[in-house]
Design a protein that fits this description.
mainly beta, 4-stranded antiparallel sheet, 28% strand, globular
Length: 54
Amino acid sequence: MPEQMRQYRTGQGVPKKGKYICQSGRRVELRENETFPYCPVSKEETSWVHEEDV
């Protein structure tokens, strides 16, 4: 289990490819160097965590 769960915000760069989970619980596949999108549910800014960190 990770020591600290790293969170990312809408508009930040994606550090590594993989599935990320937004605050609404939706999983999205993102590639390295893309930017974190708005929440696919609320269409608002949100925070994201890599599914490996959950």
